[in-house]
Amino acid sequence: MPELPEVETVRRRLAPVLEGRSFVDVQINDARLTRPFDPVEVARELEGERVALVDRRGKYLIVRFESGRALLVHLRMTGSVLHGRRGQLPDDPHRRAVVRLDDESDVTYRDVRRFGTWLLLEPAEVDGYVDARVGREPLAADYRAKHLGEELEGRRAPIKAAILDQRTVAGVGNIYADEALWRAQIHPLRPASGLDSAEVKALHRGIRQALQGGLRRQGSTLRDYRLPDGGTGSAQHEFKVYGRGGEPCDRCGTPIDKIRVAGRGTWYCPSCQPYAARRSSSRPSRSRRHSSV
DNA sequence: AGGTGGACCCGAACGC
DNA sequence: TGCGTTCGGGTCCACC
Asked: Given A205, A264, A270, A274, which residue is catalytic?
């Protein structure tokens, strides 16, 4: 599923091929993509726009035009963007849109489950729309544990549900939420407001490390995710818990357990992510390492 | 008012 | 083998 690392990888690959280019012709053949707006009208509005910048906020890919308008692309679960020379891309029953650029190349959008969305916004609408839905960028240089702590304050929801909320922190989805909690050694069902400051710090670090790791591998391809050149990411090979039920924990050897949190499949290590607070001796956070198995 | 669960999708995996 | 059922996941929205 495209989460921050996947969307950022797409952004980086797309920026050099889109910036400075104009949309010459746009075909949208799935009304769901632009709902509730008419796809034919949206396509017509897009024609003639020249791309100033390919941006990202959370899981939104933001194509900013010189006019000040912006196209917000959300890949949801199975969306992907491909770029290639015109006519070179093979037929695809799941292709939902094609953008012809002014340099003889095409950008196509494919989406098996059709959850993805394209939303064309006027200049004055963009910031408000995005900021209402998306919190701070976790990979920004100035993102601090303090910011995460403020968002978690007073929230009774399980910590995993809280970090899946895009307003808590931008771009964390089901996969990287589990990976971050494993790194921080925090049980996914712990009430968000119950974390102490050391745990918030560990989670802040866990989120950043999990996302950075995904980004270094150009995202994770479980099935549908692709880079714009058709390539695959490889972060799935680095997962510590996601999808690894029954396998031994990399840290302590205990079999990874699977439960359900906030309606999502959730994998964690029952030994190094205990629900009850670890009893700490006089010294703050001594560590496990060889907990009993 | 914050939290939860269903709806939206469709291909793959599963069960009989 | 074949066919019906279940699963999953991001976001919105109705409902508690």
From this structure: A264
Residue A285: pLDDT band with limits 50, 70, 90? very low
As a rounded value in angstroms, the CA-to-C1' distance for A2 and B13 is 22
* Residue A222 CA, nucleotide B13 C1', distance (Å): 15
Could you confirm whether A283 is annotated as catalytic? no
Instruction: Please give the average per-residue pLDDT across A7-11, as a whole number.
Output: 95
Q: What is the mean pLDDT of chain A?
A: 91
Report if residue A238 sits inside a domain. yes
Q: Chain C: nucleotides under 7 Å from a protein CB?
A: 7-12
Specify whether A124 is located in the same domain as A161.
Answer: no
Q: Is the CB of residue A206 less than 8 Å from the CB of residue A183?
A: yes
Answer yes or no: is A140 within a domain: no
List A11, A13, A57, A59, catalytic entry: A59
pLDDT in tens, A220-233: 998 888 999 999 99
The answer to pTM > 0.90 is yes
Whether A115 and A168 share a structural domain: no
**Domain range for A263:** 145-289
Q: Three-state SS for A228? A: coil
Task: Report if residue A139 sits inside a domain.
Answer: no
